[in-house]
Amino acid sequence: MKSLKPLLLSIAILSVVTGWAQKFPLKPLPLEDMSNFKTTGSNWQIVGDVVMDRTGGMKTTAGKGILLNNVGDKDHDILEKAGKDKDQATIEGYKVLTAWEHGDLELELEFMMPKGSNSGIYLQGRYEVQLFDSWGVKSPKYGDLGGIYRNWESAPGKIYMGKAPIANAAKAPGLWQHMRISFQAPRFDAQGKKTENARLHYVIINGVTVHQNLEIPLPTGGPLDQKEVPLGPIFIQGDHGAVAFRNIKYRSLGAKTATTSEISYKYFEGKFKEAKELDGKTPKASGKIAAVTTEVLELEDVSGARFDGMLNVPEDGEYLMTLNSTGGVKLLIDNQELMNNERPDSWWDSKQSNLQLKAGAHPFTIYYYKDAGYMPPRLAWIIEGSAIQRSTLTAFGSYPPNPNPSSSIYVPVGSKTRLLRAFLDFNRDRSRRLTHTIGVGDPGGLHYIYDLKAGNVACAWRGDFVDATPMWDDRGDGSFRPMGVTQFTYMGQTLGIINSASDGFPADYKEEDFKTKGYAIEEATGRPIFRYSYKGIEVEERCYPSLDQNSLVREIALNGTIPAGTHLKLGEGKDIIAMPDGSFAIDERKYYIALAADAKASIRDFNGKKELVLPVSAGIVKYSIIW
Fold first, then answer.
1. Ranges for the PA14 domain (predicted)?
2. Structural domains in the chain, sorted by start
3. Per-position DSSP letters for 159-189, written without gaps between them
4. What pTM, to 2 d.p., does this model score?
5. What is the pLDDT of residues 163-209, one digit of tens each?
6. What are phi and psi of 45, to 5 degrees?
7. Which residue of 162, 252, 279, 500 is surrounded by the most CB atoms within 10 Å?
């Protein structure tokens, strides 16, 4: 029999075990008033909406849902004088602190900044994740968006020089941006001595991981206090420019964990199709063990086990259970079936279920059985709750690594334009798969995917090119994934004929109307020129980065007889706002569309959405997608 010594998983290994499984939902932070924050200066307020112009202007509307720091010119004068006079109390008045404190924390939010603004989120009031208008910065430093700020200490042993983000994930000023943080608080012994530094498991901005498994040994610059503590509030810097927040969600984790105890097992040999078949068999072995583990199996295949024990939860609440397994598995808690996967031949499955539990001990039973010789036995049981640490309840050896691992397959661009045909899951949604797409990679780092079946740019991004692992690993599924700050636009045709409010742009491909003619390669640049015809209109399209590499230019040439009502759809979404600089902010300010000054685009309502449309005739139309 194999060794039954359990070994708890570290958080790093746990992230691999849980795979793509859904995590416990975060708790929304209400933004109806300032009651969730400590007393602050008048520069902090709750508003209903905010529009920030790319050039620096800002307008707000009354209401609820957005936390806004509106630092004006007068405030800058006050703060500058306070700094010169060392009036720390005045500077402190421009901060906002949560009324609650946290240890380990998962935090998710959206933020918006105008041009040139500077703020920061201090975890426990001591470790700053920088917020900054870093749009267009080529080599980000610790002071750029997502950077971990340095401190200003000079004594040996107290200096921390900060950490730059590994990529610039910033969007243009005035757009809503997304951030997710997983933070581990410093650890202390019974005497209060620090035994482990604070750590960021990850910081993800606009879908790009900018930090992973980063240790922060000391407080960063400008903390609430230099003394590190188990608990502290979030504080947000409010003295260096405007910043807005919405959709703040969090999960503050205590030191408590769920555990198992009084575990016994029964080991069986044979082919089992259902869990109940194990109960009718005489076990070949049985005994007491410290943790549930597949290591009790003497045969790697055509065998199974039943585990019985107690699940101990530290407090009343909702809990999320995850079972990852090769083979069949069934879980009962309090004699009630929670999950059942009757797949003895499965190579890998993940099942999840939520339930309410009272604090205390709950009897559990797990059946595990396997008839899949191409994979070793693998079983991981994971639990998490609203305020407890995520825990793996099975032993380390119960879930060995995949015996046939494969490295990710990344496709670089190189020094020339690169083209790659594949499927695209629009907005990362498999149910919205586009099958006639081509990725175009530019050496300057701005890329896009063109839908040949619709004559449309489906998405564009800055950063590395594509992850082709889903397309080429093993059998593959034919799809690739953009690898940077990705902005999806819309599905369907760019070109349509609209003569009434009920006319829509074609959403489905009709061969009799739309005829793709593929693409030619522009000799000087290596870039594709896309060609198609729509109802007799001949179209050629070139897409290329702007000179500053911050936006994608679409240049669409239309020739032939152009019917009345011919329009281009430039963008769609829940809302579209005409900005003071002449551009349009699309879909709750996710990206901008900028046209020539003489272009007369309009916003229309169609099918519950807003559309930005432009009437066209023969000639060339040019506009930019900015994000």
1. 258-395
2. 31-253 (2.60.120.560), 256-398 (2.60.120.260), 410-626 (2.70.98)
3. ----B--SS--PPPTTS-EEEEEEEE--EE-
4. 0.88
5. 999 999 999 999 999 999 999 999 999 999 999 999 999 999 999 99
6. -155, 165
7. 252
